[in-house]
Specification:
Keywords: Antibiotic resistance, ATP-binding, Cell membrane, Membrane, Nucleotide-binding, Translocase, Transport. This protein is of the alpha/beta class. Helices cover 35% and strands 27% of the residues. The protein folds into two domains: 219 residues, Rossmann fold (3-Layer(aba) Sandwich); 74 residues, Alpha-Beta Plaits (2-Layer Sandwich), CATH 3.30.70.
Amino acid sequence: MTIRASALVRTYGSVKALDGLDLEVAEGTVLGLLGPNGAGKTTTVRVLTTLLKPDSGSAEVAGVDVLRQPGRVRELIGVSGQYAAVDEYLTGRENLELVGNLYHLGRRRARERAGELLAQFRLEDAGDRPVKTYSGGMRRRLDLAGALVARPKVLFLDEPTTGLDPRSRNDMWQVIAELVADGATVLLTTQYLEEADRLADLIVVVDQGRVIARGTADELKAQVGGEVIELVVGSADQVPVATEVLERVGRGAVTTDPHTRKLSVSVEGSSTGAAALVEALTALGERQVDVLDVAVRRPTLDDVFLTLTGHVAEESRAGSPQKEVVA
């Protein structure tokens, strides 16, 4: 395994950011690390990239012990975090050349590599502008480019596409896929199931510092049913009746939004969504419930997390001591 973590524990005061977390990432693969805000994803990345020491447990990257040889680990990895770690007073090109010099590439090779990456990330036209003039998406692309200057074989990408527009996100996905095709190993933290679905060979779900599920995207979706029924009823007083009906045709808890009068429930198997919807609409019609809108869709990340953890993936834990240091 290129990345291995065993029984990692890290506390902040009375809060356990990591509570015996285990991970393994095979060479040349992408592990998607999913979890809500405060689950421990970023703390995991910080431990594995030598930025934070665990209270207990062990970890290795490319066969190198993270605690005993942190300097060697840093030589082998590239890191792109949630917030672009770039100097806004330097140009994009100068930022990349600076990283190249820190990796001892030599002035000429650092300059060449900066030009290659500016082209790869569609930043050529902005390469000689100060980064403070860049948009948020441009900064994120420059940050990932910086992580690739030394062509590392192990990459840690902590929510690299958060805040990007659809085109930039797709571009980033393409770059990551190409890196893996060339043999890179990637640990990717994300709140987007579609991102993990597209990129990850294996997904690990964490919550409260513990691994609570492992599998492919399809396997995780199967845990909440093959499809989800959604409907909107005509008035607030019809929500309880609609909830009762959906509880009969679906599996698990019915999610309701009292403000929009929208209800949703998972159903078993990918082929039963239409049949369950017909059954629900028939029962609702018999009970004179007005249905304004209906849909059958595949499960989303929120559905997975609602089933696994009881809350959605984007939910913040207000007041948690982890809020400033983990995601």
